[in-house]
Write a structure and sequence with these properties.
The protein is an alpha+beta fold and 181 residues long. It has helices at 3-70, 74-96, 101-120, and strands at residues 123-126, 140-146, 156-161, 163-166, 169-172, 175-180. Helix 2 runs antiparallel to helix 3.
Length: 181
């Protein structure tokens, strides 16, 4: 081979090598660009998750705060329930005594005033009547006695203590006597 032939043969090899190196450099840049795109996508995802978590935290704390305001007086209400029970017992005994009519009126006035004040703060009675069906989720059974009739089996025969709710939360379940089935 002559020198001309050698230079012709070597030139394409050099050009091929230069082209290959340029292609690798472009691939390297593309890979770096792709890596940056992947990192950006990962950071965006991380940011969105953190943002969503923070929004959930805000909603949860607002809900807890509202619930706290609704039931903030729960301990005071629980302390007042025995007083309401005593008023109710006093009223039932005073009604039997005909001579204490003025006393009954005064006690009834104080009882109604206390009850209205507590109702304004969110307290409400849970209505339970004799003959209602007993439900363990809504009532607290104090005792069972033989049912006086077949239609009262598994039903409420007597209400020992009233139940109360503060807002939507039951703070004392009604205590009842049920008929044995």
């Amino acid at each position: 081979m002559s020198k001309k032939d050698k230079s012709k043969v070597e030139e394409p090899q050099v050009e091929d090598a230069a082209t290959a190196t340029a292609e690798q450099n472009q691939k390297g840049e593309k890979t770096a660009e792709e890596q940056l795109q992947d990192q950006l996508a990962a950071e965006k995802d991380k940011f969105m998750r953190l943002f969503a978590e923070f929004e959930n935290y805000k909603k949860r704390t607002n809900k807890e705060r509202i619930e706290l305001f609704k039931t903030a007086g729960e301990s005071v209400m629980l302390a007042m329930l025995p007083v309401l029970d005593d008023f109710e017992r006093a009223l039932t005994h005073i009604e039997e005594d005909k001579e204490a009519e003025e006393l009954r009126k005064g006690v009834l006035l104080i009882y109604n005033k206390l009850l209205n004040t507590l109702e304004q703060k969110g307290l409400s009675k849970i209505e339970v009547n004799k003959g209602d069906t007993f439900n363990a989720d809504d009532h607290e059974a104090v005792t069972q006695i033989p049912a006086p009739s077949d239609d009262l089996k598994g039903k409420i025969i007597d209400v020992v203590e009233r139940g109360y709710k503060l807002g939507d939360k039951v703070i004392r379940f009604p205590k009842v006597v049920i008929g044995q089935a």
